[in-house]
Amino acid sequence: MIQRRMSIFCIISVMTFLTFVILLSNLVLPAKDPPSDPCSLLPATQVAKVLEQPFGPATKTAAPAAAFDRVTGTDCTYQTAKGNSRRLLFRIYVDPSIAVAKDAFAKLSNFFGPNRAVTGNWDAAYFDANHAIHVQKGKARYYLSLSPTGADASRAEKQLTDLATWVAGQL
After folding, report:
1. 3-state secondary structure at position 165
2. CA-to-CA distance for 119 and 121, rounded, in angstroms?
3. Which of 44, 86, 162, 167 is the most buried (most CB within 10 A)?
4. In whole angstroms, what is the distance from residue 160 CA to residue 114 CA?
5. The pTM of the whole model exceeds 0.85
6. Dihedral sign (CA 20, 171, 54, 162)
């Protein structure tokens, strides 16, 4: 009798635990919509910290839409002080839905090959042939390109990954 009660108790305990785990797994936070000023997702202070040199505030301009869609984006261009012509381009698009963003991201990846996948806190990301990182997280698609890359491309890719991770954390 005691053994039967212990078995029932164990079954109930396991079922309760599994129910709790299933309920918590549904509480994963969805990506937030980007702010009205997308350049605020990547402050110049963060750019300077990661790239280890001073950068001025972003110059904000409109980014063109891809040939197959009508979504325009925002370009945020960061420049170093005069005499040192290093430039970071942060381009971001916000699509009407996650499905549209995934589809556009997949289509565009064909134009920037060969690509190397990058893991991180996003839905998909890759480095293109020019060492720029392309990221899709939720409804947002963004791109970070450093010019010139410098002699150490792997270091530049690490820095761009760090910046992309920062932006992903803001979304």
Report:
1. helix
2. 7
3. 167
4. 18
5. no
6. positive
